[in-house]
Write a structure and sequence with these properties.
The structure is a homodimer of 333-residue chains. With 333 residues, chain A is an alpha/beta fold. Chain A folds into two domains: 172 residues, Dihydroxyacetone kinase, domain 1 (Rossmann fold, 3-Layer(aba) Sandwich); 140 residues, Hypothetical Protein Tm841, Chain: A,domain 3 (2-Layer Sandwich), CATH 3.30.1180. In chain A, helix 2 crosses helix 3.
């Protein structure tokens, strides 16, 4: 294992300390238990949005905390769900009196721990509403989930849900918008290489020099199939073919196309894949109205990508375009 | 070689096509010869800023084209200098009548080809002034340079030089500001893994499972020494020790600290290293007033990082903070 770290046990905490020092104008980082809140929070009268998950998926979720973004993010240990007490403290710190939405990616541990935290928060008179995303079309159940996994679609889901809260929507309305994104976004990913969790020191799986895993999970858990590496055009056709068929997306649909790097894939390959994806969608009459390309939901140093497609309507487009000012996303302000 | 590509010979061109489709509001991409200009260019009466270099260092330089950024970027083939005709066409397309600054990273091929292009442009009555950056403290001469290499310091150098042009400075003033950045920025990098140029298909060098290269070049060319992998704190102390000693930076200096990923290093390690760097600098009384952490000048999928330190004054700080709206950097607008 070759990594720029000091101690496998303190990787997540030291990276959080780095974030605290790097973005003091945006973030307040709390330790023991660990969570991240807006430096200017809580926002009185605004619906608060809280999310989280295992570390190792940076910039998720701390990178999305700030005006127009999340009110709080709760990082677990690497590839490990945050604990109920972390989530509870973050929920209390984020609450501005208008209720709290928990954005939960569909992993069994996350579902359970967010549920427990929500019950504890309700006992303290904070209204909490969960919304769960399960956008991965690759597999029905997985090592870590009952049902589909929550993967790259989480990024536009965060952006749009948070924008609805930022413009002043009430709890019901924010939840409705958030569920509309879930209903309209689909994702599928692939990997060329595994990643290594610092604490284990061993690669999460083994791929031969000419193999890739299609439908990979973000923890390196198995996907749909292991095949020989093919061309970017063929990889994209496999991923987007499944994505388009699933919703289904249809000719005339207006979409946001998101090519996400898994952490170790260079920008040049992501933009090349984006070009392949545009050709694939153009051939099917699917319009790409908005774009995101980059490392926005990673799996440590894994090489690979996921492709997400979100069917837009005017309101979702407007909320996507709304200002955001966070470490990982910043526009319009 | 495992990459998300179609054909090793068309990687750079297909990625450019992807950028053209991804950022139509910001960029106009020209082919044969290849270069990228501002969608709203040329800007009449503004000093134009043009840079470039080999592809494979994304988001350099196309990612920095746009308002508050470069007027044009010229990408060569992967790890290959752009040709004089590319640079000439980009220079002519960027020229707004107030002169053009060529921002050249110190590599022999780049220096020669930008010089030739400048002569050809001058023959067409465009005033061109080159500024060269050579911020790498690792080695005196290298495989690809006479003198020091131009590395990560190029990113704050771009930002600040372009901001001076954007606020309306004349050619002399922009050049003076640009040279002031060069005089005050120093960088050193390291790598845990090599990268593979698509056309060659072979890793640029070989490192054993427990080795790292200190003072690496951005093309994988040798650095200062090959040593056993140590802790993040020790790696940072080596890089920043050389950086601080070189200028030298002194107690009381106000700086911009830039931890740059080489492409394959995850965000969690970059922020952990940033934390180590802050401790190192705090111990020496060096203030960090501005921060940049991320993959801003890569070497394909290489795992590793460089650390740059720029001594700020009030004007450089103001120009760093000025609005920019490009694919890779966006703030204040």
């Amino acid at each position: 294992m070759k990594k720029i770290i000091n101690d496998p046990g303190t990787v997540a905490a030291e990276a959080l300390q780095g974030m605290a020092l790097a973005y003091p104008d945006l973030l307040t980082v709390h330790f023991d238990p660990n969570y991240v809140t807006r430096a200017d929070g809580p926002q009185k009268g605004k619906v608060a949005i809280v999310s989280g998950g295992g570390s190792g998926h940076e910039p998720l979720a701390g990178g999305y905390v700030g005006p127009g973004g999340l009110d709080a993010a709760v990082p677990g240990a690497v590839f490990t769900s945050p604990t109920p007490d972390q989530i509870l403290d973050a929920t209390k710190a984020a609450d501005g009196g208008a209720g709290v939405v928990h954005l939960v990616l569909n992993y069994t541990g996350d579902i359970l721990n967010f549920e427990t935290a929500a019950e504890l928060a309700e006992a303290e008179d904070i209204e909490v509403r969960p919304v769960v995303i399960d956008d991965d079309v690759a597999v029905k159940d997985s090592t870590y989930t009952a049902g589909r996994r929550g993967v790259g679609g989480a990024i536009p889901w965060y952006k749009i849900t948070c924008a609805a809260a930022a413009r002043g929507d009430d709890l019901d309305s924010v939840v409705a918008i958030s569920k509309r994104v879930v209903a309209n976004v689909r994702t599928m990913g692939m990997a060329l290489t595994p990643c290594t969790v610092p604490h284990s020191g061993e690669p999460s799986f083994v791929l031969e020099d000419d193999e890739m895993e299609i439908g990979i999970g973000v923890h390196g858990e198995p996907g749909r199939e292991r095949v020989k590496v093919t061309s970017a055009d063929e990889i994209v056709a496999t991923l987007l073919g499944n994505v388009v068929e699933d919703l289904p997306f249809e000719s005339g649909d207006r979409t946001l196309l998101f090519v996400n790097g898994m952490g170790g894939t260079p920008s040049i390959e992501l933009h090349l894949a984006y070009n392949s994806a545009r050709k694939f969608l153009a051939d099917r009459g699917i319009e790409v109205a908005r774009t995101l390309v980059g490392n926005y939901f990673t799996s440590l140093e894994m090489q690979g990508m996921s492709i997400s497609l979100l069917r837009l309507d005017d309101e979702l487009t407007e909320l996507w375009d709304a200002p955001i000012h966070t470490p990982a996303m910043r526009w319009g302000v």
